[in-house]
């Protein structure tokens, strides 16, 4: 083998931006990071950085990326993970609901990726773009009412496919990860208002459990590293089997 398994999965020496061995830059709308991030940063030996950024506003987004490029000098990859989820009946969605969700999930994703790609192309970097999509881009999520959210993730899915084709000659790869039910702060906050969702989270996936953020780490590492150097335009589904069976699960909500 020309490369070891470790080298194919290593991000050593690379700079990766995450919007919500590599040098990792995390952006989030909060002025200061939460305590979990602070604890991770203390253990990172200077390889974890935080920049406050509202991805729905052009000037703060531009300034955040300018500061990142100034401070760190280069960028090898980006994961766009910022997103909001509005769960309510279609007829109850307001104009403000849809615009706010599109501003984060669509516009923020588009222009964060644009900043990253421009930097890569100007420096001839063969980088990797990974966008967090969702199972809702392909099928319904039992127990939820996600018309606007699903539409916004459908945008991410289509955007990534088109961008992968456009950037392939530059050696910049573009892929998505589509999680199923994952125990994120966003999903848990929805379940706190509707406790029966916890049952669906654990019963609807054929694997019989809700996913954890740890289940997404390997997927992200693979798509960012050299192990996926011939992979672009892929949607890597991490959903416990939901994609093959969601239509068979009947929610009582």
UniProtKB/TrEMBL annotation:
<comment type="similarity">
    <text>Belongs to the short-chain dehydrogenases/reductases (SDR) family.</text>
</comment>
<dbReference type="InterPro" id="IPR002347">
    <property type="entry name" value="SDR_fam"/>
</dbReference>
<keyword id="KW-0560">Oxidoreductase</keyword>
<protein>
    <recommendedName>
        <fullName>Oxidoreductase</fullName>
    </recommendedName>
</protein>
<dbReference type="InterPro" id="IPR036291">
    <property type="entry name" value="NAD(P)-bd_dom_sf"/>
</dbReference>
<dbReference type="Pfam" id="PF13561">
    <property type="entry name" value="adh_short_C2"/>
</dbReference>
């Amino acid at each position: 083998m020309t490369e070891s398994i470790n080298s194919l999965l290593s991000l050593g020496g690379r700079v990766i931006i995450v919007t919500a061995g590599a040098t990792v830059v995390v952006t989030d709308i909060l002025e200061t990071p939460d305590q979990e991030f602070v604890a991770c940063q203390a253990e990172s030996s200077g390889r974890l950085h935080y920049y406050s950024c509202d991805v729905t506003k052009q000037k703060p987004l531009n300034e955040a990326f300018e500061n990142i490029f100034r401070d760190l000098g280069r960028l090898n990859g980006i994961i766009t993970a910022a997103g909001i989820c509005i769960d309510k009946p279609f007829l109850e969605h307001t104009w403000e609901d849809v615009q706010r969700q599109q501003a984060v999930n669509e516009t923020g994703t588009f222009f964060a990726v644009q900043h990253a790609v421009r930097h890569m192309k100007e420096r001839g970097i063969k980088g990797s773009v990974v966008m967090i999509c969702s199972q809702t881009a392909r099928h319904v999520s039992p127990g939820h009412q996600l018309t606007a959210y699903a539409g916004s993730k459908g945008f991410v899915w289509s955007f990534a496919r088109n961008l992968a084709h456009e950037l392939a000659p530059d050696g910049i790869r573009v892929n998505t990860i589509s999680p199923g039910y994952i125990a994120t702060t966003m999903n848990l906050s929805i379940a706190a208002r509707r406790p029966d969702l916890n049952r669906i989270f654990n019963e609807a996936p054929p694997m019989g459990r809700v996913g954890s953020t740890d289940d997404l780490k390997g997927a992200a590492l693979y798509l960012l590293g050299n192990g996926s150097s011939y992979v672009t335009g892929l949607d890597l589904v991490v959903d416990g089997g939901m994609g093959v069976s969601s239509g068979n699960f009947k929610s009582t909500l």
